[in-house]
Protein backbone atom coordinates (compact mmCIF):
# COMPACT_ATOMS: atom_id res chain seq x y z
CA UNK A 1 0.00 0.00 0.00
CA UNK A 2 1.57 3.34 -1.02
CA UNK A 3 1.81 6.21 1.39
CA UNK A 4 0.06 9.39 0.19
CA UNK A 5 2.26 12.41 -0.03
CA UNK A 6 0.42 13.90 2.92
CA UNK A 7 1.46 11.13 5.32
CA UNK A 8 4.00 12.15 7.94
CA UNK A 9 7.26 10.23 7.51
CA UNK A 10 6.87 8.71 10.99
CA UNK A 11 3.85 6.72 9.87
CA UNK A 12 5.99 4.75 7.43
CA UNK A 13 7.23 2.50 10.24
CA UNK A 14 3.67 1.48 11.04
CA UNK A 15 2.84 0.27 7.56
CA UNK A 16 3.11 -3.42 6.73
CA UNK A 17 6.58 -4.01 5.29
CA UNK A 18 6.08 -7.64 4.26
CA UNK A 19 8.92 -10.09 4.46
CA UNK A 20 10.80 -9.04 1.35
CA UNK A 21 13.61 -6.58 1.75
CA UNK A 22 13.91 -5.75 -1.89
CA UNK A 23 12.91 -2.20 -2.67
CA UNK A 24 12.81 -1.21 -6.30
CA UNK A 25 12.50 1.86 -8.39
CA UNK A 26 9.08 0.62 -9.41
CA UNK A 27 8.57 0.14 -5.65
CA UNK A 28 6.90 -3.24 -5.35
CA UNK A 29 6.26 -4.45 -1.82
CA UNK A 30 7.58 -7.93 -2.62
CA UNK A 31 10.32 -9.32 -4.86
CA UNK A 32 8.87 -10.43 -8.16
CA UNK A 33 5.91 -7.97 -8.09
CA UNK A 34 6.69 -5.45 -10.80
CA UNK A 35 3.51 -3.37 -10.71
CA UNK A 36 4.11 0.33 -10.22
CA UNK A 37 2.47 1.75 -7.11
CA UNK A 38 -0.42 4.10 -7.96
CA UNK A 39 1.06 7.20 -6.39
CA UNK A 40 0.44 10.65 -7.80
CA UNK A 41 3.04 13.26 -8.48
CA UNK A 42 2.49 16.34 -6.34
CA UNK A 43 2.81 19.82 -7.78
CA UNK A 44 6.36 21.08 -8.16
CA UNK A 45 8.01 17.66 -8.53
CA UNK A 46 9.41 17.45 -12.04
CA UNK A 47 11.78 14.91 -13.49
CA UNK A 48 13.04 13.42 -10.23
CA UNK A 49 12.20 10.59 -7.90
CA UNK A 50 11.96 11.00 -4.15
CA UNK A 51 12.17 7.73 -2.27
CA UNK A 52 11.19 7.60 1.39
CA UNK A 53 12.81 4.72 3.30
CA UNK A 54 12.07 3.33 6.74
CA UNK A 55 13.09 0.11 8.55
CA UNK A 56 11.18 -2.02 11.03
CA UNK A 57 13.54 -1.98 14.02
CA UNK A 58 11.43 -3.97 16.49
CA UNK A 59 12.34 -7.51 15.42
CA UNK A 60 14.33 -9.21 12.64
CA UNK A 61 12.52 -11.06 9.87
CA UNK A 62 15.42 -13.51 9.46
CA UNK A 63 18.54 -14.50 11.37
CA UNK A 64 21.30 -16.04 9.27
CA UNK A 65 24.57 -17.73 10.20
CA UNK A 66 27.59 -15.74 11.42
CA UNK A 67 29.37 -17.60 8.60
CA UNK A 68 26.78 -16.51 6.04
CA UNK A 69 29.36 -15.35 3.49
CA UNK A 70 31.72 -18.31 3.09
CA UNK A 71 34.39 -19.46 0.63
CA UNK A 72 35.28 -22.36 -1.62
CA UNK A 73 38.54 -23.74 -2.98
CA UNK A 74 38.51 -26.02 -6.00
CA UNK A 75 40.57 -29.26 -5.91
CA UNK A 76 42.18 -28.11 -9.16
CA UNK A 77 44.66 -26.22 -6.95
CA UNK A 78 46.31 -29.62 -6.38
CA UNK A 79 46.71 -30.08 -10.13
CA UNK A 80 48.12 -26.64 -10.93
CA UNK A 81 50.26 -26.26 -7.80
CA UNK A 82 48.59 -23.38 -5.97
CA UNK A 83 47.86 -25.55 -2.94
CA UNK A 84 51.57 -25.37 -2.10
CA UNK A 85 51.28 -21.59 -1.74
CA UNK A 86 48.35 -21.47 0.67
CA UNK A 87 50.78 -20.67 3.49
CA UNK A 88 51.51 -17.30 1.85
CA UNK A 89 51.24 -14.54 4.44
CA UNK A 90 49.37 -12.39 1.93
CA UNK A 91 46.77 -15.08 1.16
CA UNK A 92 46.24 -15.84 4.84
CA UNK A 93 45.77 -12.12 5.54
CA UNK A 94 43.17 -11.83 2.77
CA UNK A 95 41.30 -14.91 4.00
CA UNK A 96 41.37 -13.70 7.62
CA UNK A 97 39.64 -10.55 6.46
CA UNK A 98 36.59 -12.64 5.52
CA UNK A 99 36.49 -14.72 8.73
CA UNK A 100 34.46 -16.13 10.37
CA UNK A 101 33.46 -18.34 7.47
CA UNK A 102 33.39 -21.88 6.16
CA UNK A 103 36.01 -23.01 3.64
CA UNK A 104 34.53 -25.66 1.36
CA UNK A 105 37.09 -27.79 -0.48
CA UNK A 106 35.09 -29.11 -3.42
CA UNK A 107 34.38 -28.79 -7.13
CA UNK A 108 34.02 -30.86 -10.27
CA UNK A 109 37.22 -32.76 -9.47
CA UNK A 110 35.96 -33.79 -6.02
CA UNK A 111 34.80 -37.12 -7.41
CA UNK A 112 38.20 -37.87 -8.94
CA UNK A 113 40.14 -37.24 -5.73
CA UNK A 114 42.04 -40.08 -4.04
CA UNK A 115 43.76 -39.76 -0.66
CA UNK A 116 47.20 -41.34 -0.19
CA UNK A 117 48.60 -41.40 3.32
CA UNK A 118 52.18 -40.53 2.37
CA UNK A 119 53.90 -37.28 3.20
CA UNK A 120 55.32 -36.42 -0.22
CA UNK A 121 55.55 -39.01 -3.01
CA UNK A 122 57.57 -36.59 -5.18
CA UNK A 123 60.27 -36.11 -2.55
CA UNK A 124 62.57 -38.76 -3.95
CA UNK A 125 62.33 -37.69 -7.57
CA UNK A 126 63.18 -34.57 -9.46
CA UNK A 127 66.35 -32.53 -9.56
CA UNK A 128 67.20 -29.00 -8.56
CA UNK A 129 64.97 -27.49 -11.25
CA UNK A 130 61.94 -25.23 -10.84
CA UNK A 131 59.53 -28.13 -10.37
CA UNK A 132 61.65 -29.53 -7.58
CA UNK A 133 61.60 -26.25 -5.70
CA UNK A 134 57.89 -25.80 -6.22
CA UNK A 135 57.09 -29.24 -4.82
CA UNK A 136 59.44 -28.92 -1.88
CA UNK A 137 59.30 -25.22 -1.06
CA UNK A 138 58.69 -25.78 2.65
CA UNK A 139 62.10 -27.47 2.91
CA UNK A 140 64.04 -25.32 0.45
CA UNK A 141 62.79 -21.83 1.20
CA UNK A 142 65.07 -19.72 3.36
CA UNK A 143 64.19 -20.54 6.96
CA UNK A 144 64.08 -16.91 7.97
CA UNK A 145 61.20 -16.43 5.53
CA UNK A 146 59.02 -18.84 7.49
CA UNK A 147 57.55 -17.09 10.49
CA UNK A 148 55.56 -18.49 13.37
CA UNK A 149 52.32 -16.66 13.94
CA UNK A 150 52.46 -16.32 17.73
CA UNK A 151 48.72 -15.84 18.03
CA UNK A 152 47.76 -19.13 16.38
CA UNK A 153 51.00 -21.08 15.96
CA UNK A 154 50.60 -21.27 12.17
CA UNK A 155 53.09 -21.82 9.40
CA UNK A 156 53.18 -18.60 7.41
CA UNK A 157 55.58 -18.23 4.47
CA UNK A 158 56.99 -15.28 2.56
CA UNK A 159 57.68 -16.80 -0.85
CA UNK A 160 60.46 -15.35 -3.03
CA UNK A 161 59.24 -13.59 -6.18
CA UNK A 162 61.07 -16.08 -8.41
CA UNK A 163 59.06 -18.95 -6.92
CA UNK A 164 55.78 -17.17 -7.51
CA UNK A 165 56.80 -16.39 -11.08
CA UNK A 166 57.69 -20.04 -11.72
CA UNK A 167 54.38 -21.11 -10.17
CA UNK A 168 52.40 -18.74 -12.39
CA UNK A 169 54.13 -20.21 -15.46
CA UNK A 170 53.34 -23.73 -14.29
CA UNK A 171 49.73 -22.81 -13.52
CA UNK A 172 49.29 -21.25 -16.98
CA UNK A 173 50.42 -24.50 -18.60
CA UNK A 174 48.19 -26.59 -16.35
CA UNK A 175 45.26 -24.27 -17.00
CA UNK A 176 45.21 -25.37 -20.63
CA UNK A 177 45.11 -29.01 -19.52
CA UNK A 178 42.30 -28.31 -17.07
CA UNK A 179 40.30 -26.40 -19.70
CA UNK A 180 40.67 -29.32 -22.12
CA UNK A 181 39.32 -31.66 -19.44
CA UNK A 182 36.46 -29.31 -18.69
CA UNK A 183 35.27 -28.89 -22.26
CA UNK A 184 35.71 -32.57 -23.14
CA UNK A 185 34.09 -33.53 -19.82
CA UNK A 186 36.80 -36.12 -19.15
CA UNK A 187 38.68 -35.66 -15.90
CA UNK A 188 41.90 -37.29 -14.73
CA UNK A 189 42.34 -38.58 -11.19
CA UNK A 190 43.86 -36.35 -8.51
CA UNK A 191 45.99 -37.48 -5.59
CA UNK A 192 45.73 -35.73 -2.24
CA UNK A 193 48.67 -36.60 -0.02
CA UNK A 194 48.83 -36.29 3.75
CA UNK A 195 51.14 -33.29 3.38
CA UNK A 196 48.72 -31.62 0.97
CA UNK A 197 45.90 -32.11 3.46
CA UNK A 198 48.12 -30.63 6.18
CA UNK A 199 48.69 -27.52 4.04
CA UNK A 200 44.99 -27.17 3.31
CA UNK A 201 44.03 -27.46 6.97
CA UNK A 202 46.84 -25.11 8.04
CA UNK A 203 45.48 -22.46 5.67
CA UNK A 204 41.90 -22.83 6.93
CA UNK A 205 42.89 -22.89 10.60
CA UNK A 206 45.31 -19.96 10.36
CA UNK A 207 42.70 -17.92 8.49
CA UNK A 208 39.91 -18.51 11.01
CA UNK A 209 37.92 -20.62 8.53
CA UNK A 210 36.16 -23.91 9.28
CA UNK A 211 37.07 -26.55 6.69
CA UNK A 212 34.34 -28.54 4.94
CA UNK A 213 35.80 -31.41 2.94
CA UNK A 214 33.83 -33.11 0.16
CA UNK A 215 34.68 -36.80 -0.19
CA UNK A 216 34.74 -38.72 -3.47
CA UNK A 217 31.27 -40.20 -4.07
CA UNK A 218 32.18 -41.95 -7.34
CA UNK A 219 34.16 -44.68 -5.57
CA UNK A 220 31.55 -47.36 -6.28
CA UNK A 221 31.09 -51.06 -5.58
CA UNK A 222 29.76 -53.38 -8.32
CA UNK A 223 26.24 -53.00 -6.88
CA UNK A 224 26.58 -49.19 -7.21
CA UNK A 225 26.79 -48.61 -3.44
CA UNK A 226 29.47 -46.25 -2.15
CA UNK A 227 32.92 -47.73 -1.50
CA UNK A 228 34.12 -45.95 1.64
CA UNK A 229 37.61 -47.48 1.95
CA UNK A 230 39.53 -44.46 0.67
CA UNK A 231 37.34 -42.06 2.64
CA UNK A 232 38.00 -44.09 5.79
CA UNK A 233 41.75 -43.72 5.26
CA UNK A 234 41.35 -39.92 5.02
CA UNK A 235 39.07 -39.80 8.05
CA UNK A 236 41.51 -41.81 10.17
CA UNK A 237 44.44 -39.59 9.21
CA UNK A 238 42.48 -36.38 9.91
CA UNK A 239 41.34 -37.78 13.26
CA UNK A 240 44.93 -38.67 14.19
CA UNK A 241 45.83 -35.01 13.61
CA UNK A 242 42.70 -33.88 15.52
CA UNK A 243 41.58 -31.78 12.56
CA UNK A 244 38.21 -30.10 13.12
CA UNK A 245 36.47 -30.76 9.79
CA UNK A 246 32.89 -31.02 8.56
CA UNK A 247 32.07 -33.34 5.67
CA UNK A 248 30.18 -33.75 2.42
CA UNK A 249 29.94 -36.55 -0.12
CA UNK A 250 30.28 -35.75 -3.79
CA UNK A 251 29.65 -32.67 -5.90
CA UNK A 252 26.64 -32.11 -8.17
CA UNK A 253 25.66 -35.81 -8.11
CA UNK A 254 22.78 -35.31 -10.54
CA UNK A 255 25.45 -34.87 -13.24
CA UNK A 256 27.32 -38.16 -12.70
CA UNK A 257 26.00 -39.80 -15.86
CA UNK A 258 27.56 -37.01 -17.91
CA UNK A 259 30.85 -37.26 -16.01
CA UNK A 260 31.27 -41.02 -15.79
CA UNK A 261 28.45 -42.62 -17.76
CA UNK A 262 27.21 -43.94 -14.43
CA UNK A 263 24.19 -42.50 -12.64
CA UNK A 264 23.42 -42.37 -8.93
CA UNK A 265 19.84 -41.55 -8.04
CA UNK A 266 18.73 -39.52 -5.04
CA UNK A 267 17.69 -42.52 -2.97
CA UNK A 268 21.04 -44.24 -3.49
CA UNK A 269 22.95 -41.10 -2.56
CA UNK A 270 20.75 -40.84 0.54
CA UNK A 271 21.81 -44.35 1.54
CA UNK A 272 25.44 -43.37 0.89
CA UNK A 273 25.06 -40.39 3.22
CA UNK A 274 23.56 -42.65 5.88
CA UNK A 275 26.59 -44.91 5.48
CA UNK A 276 28.93 -41.92 5.84
CA UNK A 277 27.14 -40.76 8.99
CA UNK A 278 27.60 -44.25 10.50
CA UNK A 279 31.27 -44.12 9.54
CA UNK A 280 31.73 -40.75 11.25
CA UNK A 281 30.08 -42.03 14.42
CA UNK A 282 32.65 -44.83 14.62
CA UNK A 283 35.47 -42.26 14.80
CA UNK A 284 35.48 -40.41 18.12
CA UNK A 285 36.85 -37.16 16.65
CA UNK A 286 33.99 -37.00 14.14
CA UNK A 287 31.16 -38.65 16.02
CA UNK A 288 29.41 -35.27 16.19
CA UNK A 289 30.84 -33.75 13.02
CA UNK A 290 28.48 -31.84 10.75
CA UNK A 291 27.45 -33.36 7.42
CA UNK A 292 26.08 -31.34 4.50
CA UNK A 293 24.58 -32.26 1.14
CA UNK A 294 23.59 -33.28 -1.49
CA UNK A 295 24.95 -30.22 -3.37
CA UNK A 296 22.75 -30.66 -6.41
CA UNK A 297 22.82 -28.43 -9.46
CA UNK A 298 20.15 -26.05 -10.71
CA UNK A 299 16.74 -27.40 -9.57
CA UNK A 300 15.21 -28.36 -12.90
CA UNK A 301 12.51 -31.03 -12.97
CA UNK A 302 14.84 -34.05 -12.90
CA UNK A 303 17.05 -32.45 -10.24
CA UNK A 304 14.04 -31.71 -8.02
CA UNK A 305 13.08 -35.40 -8.31
CA UNK A 306 16.66 -36.29 -7.32
CA UNK A 307 16.42 -34.05 -4.26
CA UNK A 308 13.07 -35.57 -3.27
CA UNK A 309 14.57 -39.06 -3.40
CA UNK A 310 17.52 -37.92 -1.29
CA UNK A 311 15.36 -36.18 1.31
CA UNK A 312 13.13 -39.24 1.78
CA UNK A 313 16.16 -41.31 2.79
CA UNK A 314 18.67 -38.85 4.30
CA UNK A 315 16.77 -35.65 5.05
CA UNK A 316 17.33 -36.18 8.77
CA UNK A 317 20.97 -37.21 8.29
CA UNK A 318 22.33 -33.93 6.94
CA UNK A 319 22.68 -30.75 8.99
CA UNK A 320 21.87 -28.51 6.01
CA UNK A 321 20.56 -29.11 2.49
CA UNK A 322 22.83 -27.68 -0.22
CA UNK A 323 22.62 -26.75 -3.88
CA UNK A 324 24.65 -24.62 -6.29
CA UNK A 325 23.90 -21.91 -8.84
CA UNK A 326 25.70 -20.13 -11.67
CA UNK A 327 24.04 -17.19 -13.36
CA UNK A 328 25.58 -17.01 -16.82
CA UNK A 329 27.32 -19.21 -19.37
CA UNK A 330 30.77 -17.68 -19.06
CA UNK A 331 31.60 -18.34 -22.69
CA UNK A 332 28.97 -15.90 -24.01
CA UNK A 333 28.63 -13.32 -21.20
CA UNK A 334 28.70 -9.58 -21.89
CA UNK A 335 29.10 -6.77 -19.39
CA UNK A 336 25.50 -5.70 -19.96
CA UNK A 337 24.37 -9.14 -18.77
CA UNK A 338 25.34 -8.19 -15.23
CA UNK A 339 22.88 -5.27 -15.32
CA UNK A 340 19.81 -7.26 -16.36
CA UNK A 341 17.19 -7.45 -13.64
CA UNK A 342 15.76 -10.63 -15.17
CA UNK A 343 19.12 -12.28 -14.53
CA UNK A 344 19.26 -11.02 -10.94
CA UNK A 345 15.81 -12.50 -10.33
CA UNK A 346 16.55 -16.03 -11.63
CA UNK A 347 17.71 -17.06 -8.17
CA UNK A 348 14.32 -16.35 -6.54
CA UNK A 349 12.59 -19.16 -8.41
CA UNK A 350 15.32 -21.63 -7.46
CA UNK A 351 15.03 -20.71 -3.79
CA UNK A 352 11.29 -21.40 -3.84
CA UNK A 353 11.76 -24.81 -5.48
CA UNK A 354 14.41 -25.91 -2.99
CA UNK A 355 12.44 -24.62 0.00
CA UNK A 356 9.28 -26.43 -1.16
CA UNK A 357 11.05 -29.82 -1.24
CA UNK A 358 12.95 -29.30 2.01
CA UNK A 359 9.91 -28.10 3.94
CA UNK A 360 7.91 -31.07 2.68
CA UNK A 361 10.28 -33.64 4.19
CA UNK A 362 12.17 -31.80 6.95
CA UNK A 363 10.42 -28.54 7.87
CA UNK A 364 12.80 -25.97 9.30
CA UNK A 365 15.95 -27.66 7.96
CA UNK A 366 18.65 -25.12 7.11
CA UNK A 367 19.38 -24.52 3.44
CA UNK A 368 22.73 -23.45 1.99
CA UNK A 369 23.68 -22.22 -1.45
CA UNK A 370 27.07 -23.84 -2.03
CA UNK A 371 29.23 -23.17 -5.03
CA UNK A 372 27.70 -19.94 -6.30
CA UNK A 373 29.51 -18.10 -9.08
CA UNK A 374 28.68 -15.26 -11.41
CA UNK A 375 29.43 -17.36 -14.51
CA UNK A 376 29.89 -21.02 -15.32
CA UNK A 377 32.76 -22.60 -17.28
CA UNK A 378 35.28 -20.75 -15.09
CA UNK A 379 34.08 -17.31 -16.11
CA UNK A 380 35.58 -14.79 -18.52
CA UNK A 381 38.48 -12.40 -18.11
CA UNK A 382 37.47 -8.75 -17.59
CA UNK A 383 33.87 -9.79 -16.91
CA UNK A 384 33.34 -12.22 -14.02
CA UNK A 385 36.38 -10.73 -12.25
CA UNK A 386 35.36 -7.11 -12.87
CA UNK A 387 33.43 -4.45 -10.98
CA UNK A 388 30.31 -5.25 -13.03
CA UNK A 389 30.08 -8.78 -11.59
CA UNK A 390 29.60 -7.24 -8.15
CA UNK A 391 25.99 -6.32 -8.93
CA UNK A 392 25.12 -10.01 -9.15
CA UNK A 393 27.21 -10.91 -6.10
CA UNK A 394 25.78 -8.24 -3.77
CA UNK A 395 22.23 -8.92 -4.92
CA UNK A 396 22.81 -12.64 -4.31
CA UNK A 397 23.85 -11.90 -0.73
CA UNK A 398 20.86 -9.64 -0.11
CA UNK A 399 18.30 -11.91 -1.73
CA UNK A 400 19.50 -15.09 0.00
CA UNK A 401 19.58 -13.43 3.41
CA UNK A 402 16.08 -12.00 2.95
CA UNK A 403 14.77 -15.45 2.00
CA UNK A 404 16.36 -17.14 5.01
CA UNK A 405 19.12 -19.09 3.25
CA UNK A 406 21.58 -19.69 6.08
CA UNK A 407 24.93 -19.77 4.24
CA UNK A 408 26.22 -18.88 0.77
CA UNK A 409 29.58 -20.30 -0.38
CA UNK A 410 31.43 -18.27 -3.02
CA UNK A 411 33.25 -20.26 -5.68
CA UNK A 412 36.11 -19.50 -5.56
CA UNK A 413 38.52 -17.75 -3.20
CA UNK A 414 41.56 -18.36 -5.44
CA UNK A 415 42.38 -19.75 -8.87
CA UNK A 416 39.21 -20.94 -10.50
CA UNK A 417 39.06 -19.41 -13.97
CA UNK A 418 37.94 -15.82 -13.48
CA UNK A 419 35.27 -16.29 -10.80
CA UNK A 420 37.77 -15.95 -7.98
CA UNK A 421 38.11 -13.23 -5.34
CA UNK A 422 41.93 -13.13 -5.42
CA UNK A 423 44.07 -13.29 -8.57
CA UNK A 424 47.33 -15.18 -9.17
CA UNK A 425 49.39 -12.22 -8.01
CA UNK A 426 47.53 -12.49 -4.69
CA UNK A 427 45.81 -9.18 -5.34
CA UNK A 428 42.18 -8.77 -4.25
CA UNK A 429 39.63 -8.28 -7.04
CA UNK A 430 36.46 -6.11 -6.85
CA UNK A 431 34.28 -8.88 -5.40
CA UNK A 432 36.82 -9.39 -2.61
CA UNK A 433 36.51 -5.75 -1.51
CA UNK A 434 32.72 -6.02 -1.76
CA UNK A 435 32.83 -9.16 0.42
CA UNK A 436 35.16 -7.46 2.91
CA UNK A 437 32.77 -4.51 3.28
CA UNK A 438 29.90 -6.95 3.74
CA UNK A 439 31.77 -8.83 6.46
CA UNK A 440 32.78 -5.66 8.28
CA UNK A 441 29.37 -3.99 8.24
CA UNK A 442 26.61 -6.61 7.94
CA UNK A 443 25.33 -8.61 10.90
CA UNK A 444 23.21 -11.80 10.85
CA UNK A 445 19.90 -10.12 11.70
CA UNK A 446 17.87 -9.20 8.62
CA UNK A 447 15.39 -6.33 8.87
CA UNK A 448 12.24 -5.53 6.90
CA UNK A 449 12.13 -2.22 5.07
CA UNK A 450 9.32 -0.09 3.73
CA UNK A 451 9.64 2.25 0.80
CA UNK A 452 7.27 4.85 -0.57
CA UNK A 453 8.15 6.90 -3.60
CA UNK A 454 7.06 9.42 -6.19
CA UNK A 455 7.80 8.86 -9.84
CA UNK A 456 6.81 9.94 -13.29
CA UNK A 457 4.06 7.97 -14.95
CA UNK A 458 5.55 5.19 -17.10
CA UNK A 459 5.08 5.17 -20.84
CA UNK A 460 2.23 2.88 -21.97
CA UNK A 461 3.38 -0.71 -22.39
CA UNK A 462 6.72 -0.13 -20.70
CA UNK A 463 7.68 -2.59 -17.98
CA UNK A 464 9.41 -0.85 -15.09
CA UNK A 465 12.19 -3.08 -13.81
CA UNK A 466 13.40 -3.14 -10.24
CA UNK A 467 16.74 -1.45 -10.76
CA UNK A 468 17.10 0.04 -7.31
CA UNK A 469 17.53 -2.68 -4.68
CA UNK A 470 17.75 -1.99 -0.98
CA UNK A 471 18.48 -4.40 1.87
CA UNK A 472 18.81 -3.78 5.62
CA UNK A 473 20.55 -5.62 8.49
CA UNK A 474 21.66 -4.90 12.00
CA UNK A 475 25.23 -3.66 11.86
CA UNK A 476 27.82 -6.35 12.63
CA UNK A 477 28.46 -6.82 16.35
CA UNK A 478 32.13 -7.40 15.52
CA UNK A 479 32.51 -3.84 14.23
CA UNK A 480 33.48 -1.84 17.30
CA UNK A 481 33.20 1.47 15.45
CA UNK A 482 29.43 1.31 15.86
CA UNK A 483 27.34 0.80 18.98
CA UNK A 484 24.72 -1.92 19.11
CA UNK A 485 21.44 -0.71 17.76
CA UNK A 486 22.96 0.68 14.54
CA UNK A 487 21.56 -0.38 11.16
CA UNK A 488 23.35 -0.97 7.86
CA UNK A 489 21.64 -0.48 4.49
CA UNK A 490 23.19 -1.73 1.28
CA UNK A 491 21.96 -0.44 -2.03
CA UNK A 492 22.41 -1.46 -5.67
CA UNK A 493 21.62 1.22 -8.25
CA UNK A 494 21.37 -0.26 -11.75
CA UNK A 495 19.92 2.94 -13.16
CA UNK A 496 22.04 5.11 -15.41
CA UNK A 497 21.01 8.13 -13.36
CA UNK A 498 21.42 8.99 -9.70
CA UNK A 499 18.62 8.33 -7.24
CA UNK A 500 17.72 10.16 -4.04
CA UNK A 501 16.58 8.47 -0.84
CA UNK A 502 15.18 10.27 2.18
CA UNK A 503 15.47 8.39 5.47
CA UNK A 504 12.22 8.52 7.40
CA UNK A 505 10.59 7.22 10.56
CA UNK A 506 13.12 5.60 12.93
CA UNK A 507 15.99 6.56 10.58
CA UNK A 508 15.07 10.23 10.39
CA UNK A 509 17.69 12.82 11.35
CA UNK A 510 20.35 10.22 12.22
CA UNK A 511 24.04 10.47 11.42
CA UNK A 512 24.93 8.23 8.47
CA UNK A 513 28.30 6.80 7.40
CA UNK A 514 28.61 6.19 3.68
CA UNK A 515 30.76 3.47 2.04
CA UNK A 516 30.46 4.06 -1.72
CA UNK A 517 32.17 1.47 -3.92
CA UNK A 518 32.92 2.52 -7.50
CA UNK A 519 35.21 1.29 -10.28
CA UNK A 520 38.68 2.81 -10.32
CA UNK A 521 40.51 3.73 -13.51
CA UNK A 522 39.52 4.20 -17.14
CA UNK A 523 38.03 0.71 -17.65
CA UNK A 524 34.74 1.58 -15.97
CA UNK A 525 32.54 -1.45 -15.32
CA UNK A 526 35.31 -3.69 -16.71
CA UNK A 527 37.73 -2.45 -14.06
CA UNK A 528 39.50 -4.90 -11.76
CA UNK A 529 40.23 -2.12 -9.27
CA UNK A 530 37.80 -0.24 -7.06
CA UNK A 531 37.68 2.94 -4.99
CA UNK A 532 35.95 3.51 -1.68
CA UNK A 533 34.56 7.02 -1.24
CA UNK A 534 36.94 8.20 -3.96
CA UNK A 535 40.08 6.50 -2.59
CA UNK A 536 41.53 3.47 -4.45
CA UNK A 537 41.57 0.25 -2.43
CA UNK A 538 44.72 -1.87 -2.24
CA UNK A 539 46.66 -3.81 0.34
CA UNK A 540 49.09 -1.76 2.42
CA UNK A 541 52.83 -2.06 1.65
CA UNK A 542 53.39 -4.10 4.81
CA UNK A 543 50.93 -6.72 3.53
CA UNK A 544 48.00 -5.78 5.76
CA UNK A 545 44.48 -4.82 4.77
CA UNK A 546 43.68 -1.10 4.57
CA UNK A 547 41.34 0.67 6.93
CA UNK A 548 37.91 1.04 5.35
CA UNK A 549 37.14 4.69 6.09
CA UNK A 550 33.55 5.94 5.84
CA UNK A 551 32.34 9.33 4.66
CA UNK A 552 30.20 10.89 7.41
CA UNK A 553 27.00 12.50 6.14
CA UNK A 554 25.16 15.29 7.88
CA UNK A 555 22.14 14.21 9.93
CA UNK A 556 18.94 14.50 7.93
CA UNK A 557 20.75 14.68 4.60
CA UNK A 558 19.16 12.99 1.59
CA UNK A 559 21.17 10.01 0.34
CA UNK A 560 22.27 10.51 -3.26
CA UNK A 561 22.97 7.16 -4.94
CA UNK A 562 25.24 7.53 -8.02
CA UNK A 563 24.35 5.56 -11.17
CA UNK A 564 25.63 1.99 -11.61
CA UNK A 565 27.08 1.73 -8.11
CA UNK A 566 26.97 -0.35 -4.95
CA UNK A 567 27.00 1.32 -1.56
CA UNK A 568 26.62 0.70 2.18
CA UNK A 569 25.16 3.15 4.69
CA UNK A 570 25.48 2.71 8.45
CA UNK A 571 22.74 4.61 10.26
CA UNK A 572 24.18 5.34 13.69
CA UNK A 573 22.49 5.46 17.07
CA UNK A 574 19.12 4.21 15.88
CA UNK A 575 18.85 2.22 19.11
CA UNK A 576 17.00 -0.46 17.17
CA UNK A 577 15.45 -2.98 19.56
CA UNK A 578 16.13 -5.82 17.09
CA UNK A 579 19.83 -4.96 17.05
CA UNK A 580 20.63 -4.36 20.72
CA UNK A 581 21.16 -7.99 21.65
CA UNK A 582 22.94 -10.85 19.91
Automatic annotation (TrEMBL):
Coiled coil: none annotated. GO terms for biological process: extracellular matrix organization. InterPro entries: GH, Glyco_hydro_79. GO terms for molecular function: hydrolase activity, acting on glycosyl bonds. One of its GO terms (cellular component) is membrane. It comes from the Eukaryota. Belongs to the glycosyl hydrolase 79 family. This is Heparanase 2 (inactive). It comes from Geospiza parvula (Small tree-finch). The gene is HPSE2.
Amino acid sequence: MPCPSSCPPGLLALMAPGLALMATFSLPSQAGDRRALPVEKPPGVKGRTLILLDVNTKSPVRIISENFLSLQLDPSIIHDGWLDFLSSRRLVTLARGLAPAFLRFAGKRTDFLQFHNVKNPAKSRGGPGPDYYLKNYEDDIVRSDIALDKQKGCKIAQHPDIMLELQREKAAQMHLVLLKEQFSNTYSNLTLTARSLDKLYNFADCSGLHLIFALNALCRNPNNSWNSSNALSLLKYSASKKYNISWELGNEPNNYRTLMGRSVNGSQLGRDYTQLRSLLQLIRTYSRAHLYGPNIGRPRKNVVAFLEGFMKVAGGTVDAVTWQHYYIDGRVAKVTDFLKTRLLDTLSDQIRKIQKVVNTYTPGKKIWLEGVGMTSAGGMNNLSDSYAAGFLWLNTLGLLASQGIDVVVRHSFLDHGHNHLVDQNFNPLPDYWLSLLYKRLIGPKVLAIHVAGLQRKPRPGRVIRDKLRIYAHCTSYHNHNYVRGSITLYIINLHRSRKKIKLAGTLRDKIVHQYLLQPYGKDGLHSKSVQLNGQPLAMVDDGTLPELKPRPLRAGRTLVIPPLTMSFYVVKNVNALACRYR
